Structure to design on (234 residues):
């Protein structure tokens, strides 16, 4: 009886260790049936393809073993990209032992998705949602600007509203970075942009970049992402 209990305990521990080395991504994708979905690891050098699946019945599932993927280290979060095409994808964060569940419209992944799972994945979604709101606002302002091109007072009001929207989003990102110093999502927040617009500059906002880098070094001294940040700090 004691031997049986010992082997059951050993099996339980081995199963637990196995799960800690596994990352799962799954979900439902409206309008996705029959389409090929690609999973890639975002490294400091670029995208590293990992796997692809055909979406069946509007659902998908990926399962990764961190021990078998170069660039994935046990216990450390990594950026993972899900995409149908280079122009239609989203990036999330996950580490061994975590399961990320997504729901989205396959025609517009990043602007439509919702996520449940670990905190890092939720933080990435929060950043994407905030940017989507900013884009909707600025798109509306651009339409008004073009429609009233010949009306100086309207153009001036639109320009002021646009500048305020940019500053409001910049302050949101700054607060986000300061509130989540131990999450790699702060890297995305610092480098977030839209078209040619960048909310932060490595030189002008060097103090902010240095602060978030120092926080991440403390938590993840051997991370490839932190090494990249260190190379950017002036």
């Amino acid at each position: 009886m004691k031997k049986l209990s010992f082997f059951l305990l050993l099996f339980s521990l081995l199963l637990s260790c196995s799960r800690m080395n596994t990352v799962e991504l799954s979900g439902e994708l409206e309008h996705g049936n029959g389409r090929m979905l690609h999973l890639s690891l975002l490294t400091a050098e670029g995208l590293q393809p990992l796997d692809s699946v055909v979406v069946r019945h509007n659902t998908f599932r990926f399962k990764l073993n961190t021990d078998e993927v170069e660039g994935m280290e046990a216990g450390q979060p990594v950026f993972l990209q899900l995409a149908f095409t280079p122009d239609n994808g989203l990036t999330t964060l996950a580490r061994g032992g975590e399961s990320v569940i997504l729901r989205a419209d396959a025609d517009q992944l990043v602007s439509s998705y919702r996520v449940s799972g670990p905190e890092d994945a939720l933080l990435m979604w929060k950043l994407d949602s905030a940017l989507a709101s900013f884009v909707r606002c600025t798109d509306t302002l651009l339409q008004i600007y073009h429609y009233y091109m010949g009306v100086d007072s309207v153009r001036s009001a639109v320009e002021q509203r646009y500048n305020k929207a940019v500053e409001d989003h910049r302050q949101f990102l700054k607060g986000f970075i300061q509130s989540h110093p131990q999450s790699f999502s702060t890297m995305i927040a610092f480098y977030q942009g839209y078209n040619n617009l960048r909310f932060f500059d490595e030189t002008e906002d060097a103090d902010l970049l240095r602060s978030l880098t120092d926080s991440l070094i403390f938590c993840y001294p051997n991370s490839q992402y932190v090494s990249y940040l260190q190379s950017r700090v002036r």
Residues 6-18 have pLDDT under 50 and may be disordered.
